[in-house]
Amino acid sequence: MLPISNGMNIDQNKFSLALAGTFGVIYVLCAALVALAPGVALKLLGWVTHIVNVDKFAGDVEITAVGLIVGLIQILAYSYLAARLFSFFYNRLTKEV
Fold first, then answer.
1. Is residue 95 part of a domain?
2. Residue 52 contacts residue 46 (beta carbons within 8 Å)
3. What domain range is 27 assigned to?
4. Is position 44 within any domain?
5. Is 65 left (phi over 0), alpha (psi -120 to 50) or beta?
6. How does pLDDT run across 3-53, given as a tens digit for each residue?
7. Do residues 40 and 33 touch, judged by C-beta distance below 8 A?
8. 38-49 and 12-36 helices cross at what angle (nearest 10)?
């Protein structure tokens, strides 16, 4: 069964800004978790990456102001670009012929 398009496009900029903002908030919350409970954060990282002994690879985790800002800028840029690319393809694929 083919999806039915209603002819509406995603506003690429608004969608991309919304996704980047969402990822930015998640990134800051993750950084706060690492700063406040590094042991729990390492355990969670191990589960996500399927690494049993994550301490071996990231034993001395430290959150710095510069690292937080540079990481936040990266996450905002990557997520914005990913959302732009997604909405570009979505709009092209749902375009009526």
1. no
2. yes
3. 12-90
4. yes
5. alpha
6. 445 668 899 999 999 999 999 999 999 999 988 988 888 888 778 777 777
7. yes
8. 130
